[in-house]
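Researcher: Here's a chain I'd like modeled. Treat it as a single chain, no partners, no ligands.
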Amino acid sequence: MADIIENTAELEEDTLKGRYLTFYIGNESYGIEVRYVTEIIGMQAITEIPELPEYVKGIINLRGKIIPVMDVRLRFRKESKEYNDRTCIIVIDIRDISIGLIVDTVSEVITIPEQDIVEPPKMNKNFSNRYVKNIGKVGNDVKLLLDCEKLLTDDEIENLSEVL
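Model: Modeled as a single isolated chain. Structure tokens:
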């Protein structure tokens, strides 16, 4: 029985390998590994909590579960934009905590073959973009593939855990 469960988990991981949910912040296209994504929901009422960083907009109640929500646009130090009917919240799980990512618009789930994924160029040795793990080449476009584990620092995750 354990073998069947293990094989099923491996098979599930294989079917998710190379699959990314793509979304936009402004004109830039990003992707996150599908294995982190639990669901995509429309914007809803966000309850603000004092003394959180500016990019953490607050919390939402998703079917009885309290989830912190982060505006990816603000996290990437882009100018704030009013939410509209295209704005979505991508709910992801990282290190046993669910977090909502507010994005301008969700695009699609795509498969990017391993040979079309490259490391981001090194600009200079003192700078590294901690959020971008890799770059996916899709036709003539590029997708900035995010490292979900690094969207929040350990301290930020600990602080959010305390709030919840």
